[in-house]
Amino acid sequence: MTWARRGGRLRGWGGVTAMAVLCALASLALFCLPGRVGGGARATGAPDQVTAPRGAGNSGGASAGHTVTAAAADDEKPCAKKYENRPPAKDGATIAAIKERGELVVGVDQNSYRWAYRGTYGSEPEGFDIDLARRIAKEILGDAGKVRFKTISTAARGPALGRDEKDKGKPAAERDAGASVDMVIRTMSITCGHIDNGIAFSTPYFETRQSLVVPRDSPINGFGPTLRGSRLCVAKGSTAESFLAAQSGFYALKPVKKVPSQLDCLVELQLGVVDGVVTDSALAASQLAQDPGVKIAGANEGDAAHLPQPEFYGIAMRDSAPDLVGRVDQILAGYRKDTSRKGWRQSYKHWLRHDLGNASASPPGADARIVW
Predict the structure, then answer these.
(1) What is the pLDDT of residues 52-77, one digit of tens each?
(2) Is 210-306 assigned to CATH 3.40.190.10?
(3) pLDDT by residue (tens digit) across 145-201?
(4) What is the dihedral of CA 31, 34, 40, 44, to 10 degrees?
């Protein structure tokens, strides 16, 4: 096996092999020792005002002024009311347990370039999501270094919080006992499915939408007629999987390839096993940064009902930890406003602007309208 690196990026088939090994290890390798965390009561509080969001472009970034119509009225979606019922920012049982432990335990990725990844073997994780985790540790514990990272796959995000789908309906206390992290910061979209499964989200920290990554010489030009009959790849448990489950019949797709990590999909694409990868536009941009032989097929056309809609990343926590949810919302409010090198915009400039440009260079507001 060989490593081919230039400017922090994996290059060539040696790099592909190395990436494949990283992907295979992603579900096994941990940045930390196994642990158990839990605690808290259900969320209460007043809802935030709801407004229209900034839009997200079809080819990787956000485009200001884009208007979105929700698929259903909020009163038809109990999860919307549950999400908008924001808890107050005050210490409680969960934060007390974190302070007593002396560290924040966060579930993250290790394969998402510029979001959460390891630059070299044995290095500390780095990226946009990692900066956010360290900011939360700093605010709660007074030290950005008091955070323990646990690597998890896309499908393991819920179980890491004690919210495995198969345990849905069990008492919260019983589910909490199976949690191994305090929160998940892993490009996780705010969805009804997650909320209905007992996951509570912070206000959004990034706006995105599903995108299609294909080889540069591919005849596929976006979500439309050229996609028909293709075989696509998604990460298990991702919103891309849900999107294709709803649209695969419309596009007459071949069986979708499902893998643990979106980076595994890039390897499948490089090997010619699949015709394209569906992933969040922000993660699609990181794939382009790793492989100049792929592109985002952004010529989307046709019925809007069959095209991706805006999504928002949120910090995922248990719904039985309202004190932590409220405190994280408060921290995010300060992080968005912070114009120093420790704030949201500087982190974006350092990690993401090279790939996503200036269109996404402002954080979504706490009152951004989620399309349910």
Answers:
(1) 333 333 333 333 333 333 445 555 68
(2) yes
(3) 999 999 999 999 999 999 999 999 999 999 999 999 999 999 999 999 999 999 999
(4) 40
Do 74-207+311-356 and 210-306 have matching folds?
A: yes
Domain 74-207+311-356 is of which CATH architecture?
3-Layer(aba) Sandwich (3.40)
Q: Which two tokens stand for residue 244?
A: 């294709």
State the Cα torsion 333-334-336-338 to the nearest 10°. Answer: 170
Residue 345's H or E segment, with its range, is helix 344-351
CA atoms within 13 A on the CB side of 116: 26
pTM of the predicted model as reported, rounded to 2 decimal places: 0.80
Q: Quick: pLDDT tens for 190-205.
A: 999 999 999 999 999 9
- What one-character DSSP code corresponds to residue 264? H
Determine the residue type at 98.
I
Three-class DSSP labels, 269-332: HHCCCCCEEEEEHHHHHHHHHHCCCEEECCCCCCCHHHCCCCEEECCEEECCCHHHHHHHHHHH
Structure tokens, 301? 């056309």
Domain spans in the chain, listed from the N-terminal domain onward: 74-207+311-356, 210-306
